[in-house]
Design brief:
Keywords: Signal. The protein is mainly beta. The protein has one domain (about 1-205): Galactose-binding domain-like (Jelly Rolls, Sandwich), CATH 2.60.120.260. It contains 2 helices and 10 strands, in the order H-H-E-E-E-E-E-E-E-E-E-E. Strands 1-4-9-6-7 form a 5-stranded antiparallel β-sheet, with no helix packed on it. It has a 5-stranded antiparallel β-sheet with strand order 2-3-10-5-8. The longest helix has 22 residues, at about 1-25.
């Protein structure tokens, strides 16, 4: 009996360590503090200007796992001067990474607009340039659409959240900038009967 309990405890601790290692690099990885502070953050940088037509970035109570909190990227219905070529979203400088190491960057993405959604997520990893967000050399990036995520791992709290990921090598860098941005397909006929919005949550970086 004691052996079984010890084995169970060891397995639980091992799982917890894996989870910690995956999230330790990303601060406020579940966006709970971001939600509590109503979209303000010392670690997450918002790329937006809703009144200027460049999209809105804010907090949402929806979440993939755990406590409430995610970020919502959108173009609001009550704004008339949208620039749908802009890319509202979030980024964070992540430090303490091992150099010259293969790693994976992942997050959970929710788009409820279905297979014909005019939006997609552009996410990836850049080198860091001080005081110049989203300007560093791209180490890896990709774009995903909800229609391609039917088999992707699913969130527990809200089933619309699906995991997306990309592999990268840190090269000579011990810090990188992770980003996730909303993109709109401007070749489609666009309607704001429903706001063009998506959500992101549960960010992680881990060694391969």
């Amino acid at each position: 009996m004691h052996i079984q309990k010890n084995l169970a405890l060891s397995a639980t601790m091992f799982t917890a360590c894996l989870a910690f290692s995956a999230h330790a690099y990303v601060q406020d990885h579940q966006l709970t503090e971001y939600r509590a502070d109503k979209g303000k953050s010392a670690v997450w940088l918002s790329h937006e200007d809703s009144s200027g037509g460049l999209g809105d970035v804010g907090s949402s109570k929806d979440s993939a796992f755990g406590e409430v909190g995610s970020s919502r990227f959108r173009f609001k219905r009550d704004v008339s001067n949208h620039d749908f070529n802009s890319k509202p979203g979030l980024s964070q400088v992540v430090s303490g990474l091992p150099a010259n190491t293969d790693m994976s960057y992942s997050l959970y993405y929710c788009d409820k607009k279905g297979a014909n959604s005019p939006t997609q997520l552009h996410f990836g990893v850049r080198e860091v340039i001080t005081n110049a967000p989203l300007a560093g050399t791209v180490l890896a990036d990709t774009k995903v659409h909800v229609k391609d995520l039917a088999q992707a791992p699913q969130g527990e709290n809200k089933k619309c959240f699906r995991q997306v990921s990309i592999d990268f090598n840190t090269g000579n860098n011990t810090q990188v900038e992770i980003f996730s941005l909303l993109e709109v397909n401007t070749s489609q006929e666009l309607s704001l009967d429903k706001e063009l919005e998506v959500r992101v949550d549960e960010f992680a970086i881990e060694k391969k």
